[in-house]
Amino acid sequence: MLDVNDVQPSPAVAQTGGRTHPVPGTATPPGTAEIESPPRNERDEASNTFVVFAFLWVVATFFHQATYNQWVTSPKGAAVLAAAVFFLLRPVSVGRFALFLALDAYHVASLTPYTPNHILLTALINVTILAAMAWSYVRAGRRPVSGGEVLEAFAPAVRIELLMLYFFAVLHKLNVDYFNPDVSCTADLLTTMTYRYPFLPVWDWMRPIAIVGALIIEAAIPILLFVRGTRAYGIVLGMAFHLFLSLHPEVGLYSFSAMLLPLFFLFAPAGSAGALRRSLREPFRRLGMPPLLVNVLLAALLSLPALAALLSRRGPFAGHPLLQPYLCGLFVWLAYALPVMFLFLRTVLSRRTREAGYRQLFRPAFAPILVLPALMFLNGMSPYLGYKTETSFSMFSNLRTEGERSNHLFVPQSLKMAGFQDDLVRIVRSSDPYLRGLADQKLLLPYFELRRRASNSPPDFSVEYVRGGRRVVATKNDPGAGGDLFTPYPWLLTKLLQFRPVDLEGPQKCRH
Fold first, then answer.
1. DSSP labels for 119-134?
2. Which residues of 331-353 are buried (b: 16+ CB within 10 A; e: fewer)?
3. Where is this region: Disordered (predicted)?
4. Which of 28, 177, 213, 385 is at a distance of 20 to 30 A from 150, taking alpha carbons?
5. Is the domain of 362 the same as that of 427?
6. C-alpha pair distances (Å), 429 with each of 16, 441, 455, 466
């Protein structure tokens, strides 16, 4: 499944005292003892890990495209898909991987701030890898740069970013409403699971168990990954948990799971990458299929959800029930994920090599790259600092920090540095369907979002709202009453900030 031309088969080796030594006078026949042999050296191991990670990372974008199928219909989204296919035809190419990363990061940047949490994280990791590549090329001078060198430059920072994602996933859930079984996002996810799988039993007593259980699992995964002796268990727990979540009908969950799969692999024990590559290639090698043909067939299979998205939107097949992009993507995801996860876990659990220490896992060779995890930390802290509440890794958390009423158990409102969240308005009526929906649902909206929407509205836009106890009626034809309502915010501010609506009264319900 993966190209075999980048790393040559290793000679037979013996292992003593944590070191490997060639066995004199022996040779390793391809496809036999090589499968169990440790990598020839750390450079081979890093190159193997780079190939597996890059392969899994690029494959994840096909599931992003299936989940958010409108991307396929845009030129930028189609360019990302083409770059992914181009990479899969030779998944050992650092240059092709860089092209994919750059196009994908640019695509997400063009969609910001309207991106899901994990897509924003994907773009941040893309930038992290690109920065590591740039540093590696500068450091190498005229010498060619291998995938292993690039991996050693970006992997520590990306591992930190994954642990940080779980940190915020847990921190944001430590609020009063998350533990309320009547409104908790976890309880809601459990209930809606039965819409697709009605045979699943869901009783009231299961809600508190699911709430606490999900929180414990999300806290345990990063701890197990961090501790040297328990990383394999962290990988098993993480993959099992997110495979289960990927079956949920909520849009984006299997896309999220596909993104996590390569990130978990960065924590795999030494030697896992080479063994997994050989396990993935062996069935096709026995069939006599060349690697290029295998990769072409794989790219065709992964492109099926994108093709379904195109056919379902226009032409004679528009609206056909068998061409639902999300369901098509789910079937392809399971066909891909189940065998890959099985081989992944079998490889990880069968390794007997010494696991890397903290210094190797989390200390980057290029120290300035830690600026990107620092930016990720600020992004996750933004709800408590008074900035954005969307794409801050607060997914399915019931978190509320807006206004004078925070529901977090211990993070104080005194941390706020800006007042965007506290300037809330209540929509009374509007010509805009979205704003009318907020009025019907009795939801408050930060004024920032109302002004953003009003400044980009059509000429016949009108709205009546209450802000700070004052009722305002404003129209695009007569903007005077609205004050600065129709004045656009600076471009950079609109790209960085986005806010979700909040409940007017009562507990904070699950928005997403």
1. HHHHHHHHHHHHHHHH
2. ebbeebbeebbebbbebbeebee
3. 1-42
4. 28
5. no
6. 76, 12, 17, 10
pLDDT reading at 12 higher than 50: no
Is position 356 within any domain?
yes
The token duo for 511 is 């928005």
Say which amino acid occupies 224.
Answer: L
Is residue 425 within 8 A of residue 202, CB to CB? The reply is no
DSSP 3-state assignment of 444? strand
In this structure, what are the phi and psi dihedrals at residue 474, rounded to the nearest 5 degrees? -135, 145
Specify whether 282 is located in the same domain as 427: no
| Whole-number pLDDT of residue 69 | 61
Query: Based on the domain organization, do 469 and 370 belong to the same domain?
Result: no
- Domain shared by 436 and 495, yes or no: yes
Let me know whether 368 and 301 are in one domain.
Answer: yes
Share of the chain above pLDDT 90, in %: 52
**H helices of 351-486, where?**
358-362, 371-385, 433-440, 447-455
Final residue in a domain of this structure, among 341, 374, 407: 374
Question: 60: domain range?
Answer: 13-374
Global pTM value: 0.87
Kindly state whether residues 337 and 445 are assigned to the same domain: no
Q: In terms of domains, do 447 and 365 share one?
A: no
Residues 6+ apart with CB under 8 A from 95: none
Residue at 207 is within a domain: yes
- For 234-257, the pLDDT digits (tens) are 999 999 999 999 998 887 899 999
pLDDT tops 90 at residue 184: yes
Please give the tally of structural domains in the chain: 2
Given a cut of 90, is residue 421 above it in pLDDT? yes
Euclidean distance between CA atoms 272 and 277, whole angstroms:
9
Degrees (nearest 5) of the Cα angle 119, 124, 130? Answer: 125
Are residues 337 and 469 part of one domain?
no
